[in-house]
Amino acid sequence: MINSLATFARVNKYGFIESPYRKIIDGKVTTEVIYLSAMEESKHYVAQANSSLDAEGRLSE
């Protein structure tokens, strides 16, 4: 987590750190990346980056 945060995170215009997340639509992981602050993260379900995906790109666990 620390390496990912240091590599891919950004600081928004208010000085808060934002982490990148890929969106899931209808159970399928998309290539769209959104950045969320800790405050915004609390409003969403977040899966681990290494969660298993099936052949169609859907979460399998």
UniProtKB/TrEMBL annotation:
GO terms for biological process: DNA-templated transcription. GO terms for molecular function: DNA-directed RNA polymerase activity. Residues 21-60 form the DNA-directed RNA polymerase beta subunit external domain. InterPro entries: DNA-dir_RNA_pol_bsu_ext_1_sf (IPR042107), DNA-dir_RNA_pol_bsu_external_1 (IPR019462). It catalyses: RNA(n) + a ribonucleoside 5'-triphosphate = RNA(n+1) + diphosphate. Gene3D superfamilies: 3.90.1100.10, DNA-directed RNA polymerase, beta subunit, external 1 domain (2.30.150.10). This is RNA polymerase beta subunit. It comes from uncultured Bartonella sp. The lineage of its organism: Bacteria, Pseudomonadati, Pseudomonadota, Alphaproteobacteria, Hyphomicrobiales.
